[in-house]
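Field reference: sequence -> structure
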Amino acid sequence: MNAAFVHESVMLAEIVDVFAEMNNGVFLDATLGGAGHSVALLRAHSALRLLGIDQDDVALAAAAAVLSQADCGGRATLRRARFDSLATVVAEEGIGSLAGALFDLGVSSPQFDVAERGFSYRFDAPLDMRMDRSQSFSADDVVNGYDADALARMLRLNADERFADRIAKAIVASRPIRSTSHLSDVVSSAIPAPARRRGGHPAKRTFQAIRIEVNSELSILPIALRDAIAALAPGARLAVLSYHSGEDRIVKSVMRTAETGDCTCPPNLPCGCSAVRTVKRVRVSREASKSEQLTNPRSTSARLRVVEKLPQEEMN
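Structure field:
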């Protein structure tokens, strides 16, 4: 196992339970990371096969080692790809439909912990934050290239940052900013002192917003979720773990649209707008257990949502 990529899977027991009745076939892990969820599911379903997608080459290499050590490597196909290309990957692999699909969104702990990746304000490093290191666009382009209005919009959209305008103006005034430490200092100084003393590190939301911008996380998510739902076999489930309100709003919206068919008819009347429902909601524990939150801090912000693909005859 790659010692640089040790990742504790969030809500592992809950995910295994969600897919307890999964049929044999191919399961899609659209955010493979350290492969913890996938290993648990392959062990629980001896005839299951895995299609694992991740855009991070380090994560893929680590996942391959983890799967091999768990004696699951022979049942796994791993592809380096962004999850909004999952429909293409599924088609290229000749998969007719999926037995299930999982998205564990956000950044893996090891990505935060490797200083040179530039994801964290805890280390002094270049402004990078690229999940796919082959892309050219990085945090440096955002921090030193966006104007104040664009920065403020990004901070509000990607992180609900209440001091977006102040932070954006401070960033522009402090250019060039070349390191994570410099950026952290600029952001912290732009936030009023009373606010700096509560709610964690004052630069946390800014770093989150920039990471999301660099990797187009919110813009590609609806595409990926819709394609995953379309690829599910009847009775198969899609589970999504999100970690902040922007992600969760998108997940909720896409799932609700699939659940209702975007029907516009009054709820007390039969549907007359030809809406097509494709999934039903599965009620699950939305949050990690208190005990897990104590042992795995990343789980405290996790939100789990699950839908199940309807049989063709129930789509109306």
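Note: The chain has two domains: 12-110+217-314, 133-214.
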